[in-house]
Amino acid sequence: MAAAGGGWPAVCEKFRAARTLSAVESLKDPETEPYRSKYSARALLQEVKQLLSAAEEGGEAVVAVRRAVLEYELGVNHTDTEELSAGEEHLQRCTQLLEPHRLSPDCVSLYIQAQNNLGILWSQRDEIETAQTYLETAEALYNQYMKEDGNPPLDPSEHFMAEEEKLTDQERSKRFEKAYTHTLYYLAQVYQHLDMIEKAAQYCHTTLKRQLEYCGYYPVEWARNAATLSQYYLSKECFMEARHCLAAASVIFSQAGQVPSTEDADETEPDQQDLPERKAEIARCWIKYCLNLLQSARKLLEDNIGELDPDRQLELKAQRKKEEDEKEKGRKKAVLFGTSDICDSVLAMEEKVSSIYPLDFQEAREVFLVGQNYVQEAKEFFQVDGYVTDHIEIVQDHSALFKVLAFFEEDYERRCKMHKRRIDMLEPIYADLNPQYYLLICRQLQCELADTYYEMMDLKVAIGNRLEKLDSHTVKKINSLAQFAIKYYELFLDSLRNPDKVFPEKLEEDVLRPAMVAKFHIARLYGKLITSDSKKQLENMQTSLEYYTFLVDYCEKYPDAVPAIETELELSKEMVNLLPASMERLRAKVSSFV
Amino acid sequence: MDSHKAAHTTDPWFSGLEMVNGLWEELLGCKAGPGPEDSHGKTLLGDIETARFTLLSSLIRPQLAKEKIEGCHICTSVTPGEPQVFLGKDKAFTFDYVFNIDSQQEEIYVQCIEKLIEGCFEGYNATVFAYGQLYNEEILDLFDTTRDIDAKNKKSNIKIHEDSAGGIYTVGVTTRTVTGESEMMQCLKLGALSRTTASTQMNVQSSRSHAIFTIHLCQTRVCPAFNADNATDNRIISESSEMNEYETLTAKFHFVDLAGSERLKRTGATGERAKEGISINCGLLALGNVISALGDKSKKATHVPYRDSKLTRLLQDSLGGNSQTLMIACVSPSDRDFMETLNTLKYANRARNIKNKVMVNQDRASQQINALRSEIARLQMELMEYKTGKRIIDEEGVESINDMFHENAMLQTENNNLRVRIKAMQETIDALRARITQLMSDQANQVLARTGEGNEEISNMIHNYIKEIEDL
């Protein structure tokens, strides 16, 4: 204790003051002197360094570690104040000092933190690969230490503490694990930058898992993150993982406002007031889960014209029995969240909806119903009045749920009723919407309504074909459905007109295909209208021809449009060739009457 | 700014240029930050994905006195006559417009802004963005000077409200009615001042915020002689007693100054939050941003709770559709800022390619196309039948199969039968002929055998002769 200026306790005091300046005081620095506290902290650290070289207390190893701690603090300080090169030097020196002892409980935590900071530093220089090397070194060291020793190591700050102040094993472990959690989190970002998305997702997942294990989370934020991660898994069609994330999100969310289980237990979670909104957001993620699961199942089951293929169905059912989710169990282990009590609740939550592809109507209906419940929950918060866009998105999802459920329904009449439900939910919101403010949404709705009417008409035609003779009721129904479909396609096309009500010469790329498909569908619908009046029929054929001709002419004029509507164009060309002859004959028939 | 005065336009209502001046000043103090590829998930790109930038321009500001003093070199150049900017020697970027260091305000106004303003007078919304990077999303009312400074951690009570008929508006924000240019300029200055004080007093939070200056334009004018069906949804026609038709036209013009990371640096916001702007986020606070960036944003199949920002919601009626959007990417010419400039230009270039959401769902079309295919096949068959005359339409207009066609068919069948018979007869003839040859040869052989010693040679010769004769 022979060091100048008050001995070891004074050194420790200076060190502590430097850390406070850096972490706490610096936040209050004025805009004009943003780094004031950081610079003061640096000066203090330099002083401590001076004192340390004068001190002779402790063995060589102890002094080396203390020096390493100072180099580390100085390195971070320089990095924070945008002096990267100096920061790098200090951090490298820290690493060198620790290298021989990096696996000892005295050094391992500091070494990992130094590597973390070198990773951050190199990422600031846009050299992500270098950052990756440092962070992966930290990761490997953690694993090696846990394998070989595993006892809670010292926190770097303890090297400047009196014996009696030293931390408990529990606290040490917490800080060590936190440093490692940061390593994983930085790695997640590094992988993302390197476009290794799968790995990035895996590290995000692990980060979430560790937050839960070490109680370092805000329930609402954690739940939102887990729900968001589930959406990544959805895009990869990993439904088991997606469901697990969502179930965990729901369970953890229900903790919100109960126990402050955060690592910084002094403050409760900031955005408590948004709880209903957050809850509704999670519900929306669930809706997407149900929808994606059903849609993916449809993709597996449909034949080349989009109908359920019974052979595929049998095949998949047999396959499912064989597999017996052996593989899933292995995968499950890797992603499982939480300690046993949380885990039990999560598993119970998962029971409510399947994560395997529904293969028949009954199974599909169960998933659909869960999705529909979440639709109601989400709509409770996202009401039209106040949240028009969100509300409509949810209704559109609801409509999509019905649409995919209809695929599984064999009975045409009932299928038709499901589409009617879609019309019933979409039409009123469309009617209320002001296109000046919600043009894009209006267009989406116009197209969806038109498609749905079209689909219903097709179904009615199919039902009619099964009858001996088309009765007038069915004919009327078919015609009115076709008229509605035409109406909405026309509304969509009208929305593309310029302020002078002129349809654009050349369509913008983003509306090209929708507009062409609308024209094509209208052409077809006019061809489908049933009438006993030949004149009327001739008129309809003429209109149909005009729409087909539009497609053909447009593509002749703008050949770059062709790839977007290849099939439609090919068919339109055929129709343009065939229709005039048919009309000629019809005309012959009509004229012979006169 | 010398161009300030010279740039006044004749527009009595307001000068768009003044607005640009405001932006310009902001931009001078805050050149655009690094592109989103270097930051976290909450990027501008993700936030205004529904926008399609019909106009995109790049603006190179003059060097600041400070930069000149510090000996910074200019590292940008503009290709003459082309909207193209070079950064260094080999990095070229093309925009709709490029304005170099020596560009005057008026140029920018005439080329970019004027048509947006004209559109506004016709009832179409417009938005001008000055590019920066997105951070905090607290909404503050810059007209509200009574703000409680101590309440910096409290949330402001301004809410964005969407209404299906009335559009998007903010609840709790001061709206001032202005009747002329000077009044509006006063408002803008007031707002800018309030923003400055807000950023010093409220520390980190607001210094990283965007500023939106929205002009609601409302016109009532005598209806031009439109046809009845010419009335659009945004024209509310009312008839006065004199039978003169008036229409009310509304439009919004947003000026958006997006917060830049430069400001973050200048203010030296430190600690955990500050590092969110840097390539690797230090605090776990931004984990959500990282996760939300994992997914494919172009897909609408998933819901990402982070994605829809308040800014997007506030501006959605002015993004996409018939409204015009202009994005100004302002960059520094100094070599010191090379990387940031590069990132800004890269970002702006990407913004150019932002597409509207896909609207038409095509997954059922296969069936419909299939149905049409069979219809075409049927029509082709029919056409063929007419061409061969199988089908005709008689005087009463009744479609029927032609009598001639029947007759023809009958004759053809008969013909075929006859052909078969001829073939059969031919075969009989051939067979008989062979038989005759054989018999004749046998007969000759017998004659020879009787007359001579049955000379084999002669017999063969005679056989051949006979065959030859037959063939002939």
Automatic annotation (TrEMBL), chain A:
It comes from Chloebia gouldiae. Pfam families: KBP_C. The lineage of its organism: Eukaryota, Metazoa, Chordata, Craniata, Vertebrata. Keywords: Cytoplasm, Cytoskeleton. GO terms for cellular component: cytoskeleton. GO terms for biological process: central nervous system projection neuron axonogenesis; microtubule cytoskeleton organization; neuron projection maintenance. This is KIF-binding protein. It is found in: Cytoplasm, Cytoskeleton. Activator of KIF1B plus-end-directed microtubule motor activity. Required for organization of axonal microtubules, and axonal outgrowth and maintenance during peripheral and central nervous system development. Belongs to the KIF-binding protein family.
TrEMBL record, chain B:
GO terms for molecular function: ATP binding; microtubule binding; microtubule motor activity. The keyword Coiled coil applies. InterPro entries: KIF21A/B_hel_1 (IPR056533), Kinesin-like_fam (IPR027640), Kinesin_motor_CS (IPR019821), Kinesin_motor_dom (IPR001752), Kinesin_motor_dom_sf (IPR036961), P-loop_NTPase (IPR027417). GO terms for biological process: microtubule-based movement; mitotic spindle organization; spindle elongation. GO terms for cellular component: cell projection; microtubule; microtubule associated complex. PANTHER family: CHROMOSOME-ASSOCIATED KINESIN KIF4A-RELATED, KINESIN FAMILY MEMBER 21A. Belongs to the TRAFAC class myosin-kinesin ATPase superfamily. Kinesin family. This is Kinesin-like protein.
